[in-house]
Q: What sequence folds into this?
């Protein structure tokens, strides 16, 4: 059966195909079962989670079922990205997008130790930066860089 015959609705998700290219949808809901390596997903593939940094001491806790976490900083307070809530499946991915709407430099971001990645540089004012992680059963490992700011 063709993939397009399985899709019944689309809103808020990033789908990465076996061929290596990704496509941004809103959410993909299927009527059958999709298999990707060792991960089997039925129903909604993922959703968009949003968080706003509006003051000091904020902790953003991604939901395991959300494919994209969009964090918008509107002040320069430091904040923390916590371990995702829920149980991750091996091979599951989370994309964290940080938007700088501060009007200047952002506050520092502290990632939970379960995120393994090379380096993080916060985006310049008016831009965003994204980093993608994949779960290996123990930790969330970087699989795509957060090397440049995006307008």
A:
């Amino acid at each position: 059966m063709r993939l397009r015959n399985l899709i019944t609705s689309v809103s808020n998700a990033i789908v990465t195909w076996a061929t290596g290219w990704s496509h941004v949808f809103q959410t993909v809901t299927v009527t059958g079962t999709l298999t990707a390596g060792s991960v089997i997903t039925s129903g909604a593939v993922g959703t968009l989670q949003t968080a706003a940094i509006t003051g000091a001491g904020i902790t953003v806790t991604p939901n395991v079922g959300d494919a994209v976490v969009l964090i918008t900083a509107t002040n320069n307070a430091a904040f923390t990205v916590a371990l995702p809530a829920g149980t991750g499946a091996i091979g599951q991915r989370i994309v964290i997008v940080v938007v700088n709407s501060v009007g200047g430099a952002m506050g520092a971001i502290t990632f939970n130790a379960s995120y393994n990645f090379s380096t993080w540089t916060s985006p310049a004012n008016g831009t965003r930066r994204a980093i993608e992680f994949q779960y290996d059963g123990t930790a969330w490992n970087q699989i795509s860089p957060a090397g440049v700011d995006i307008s």
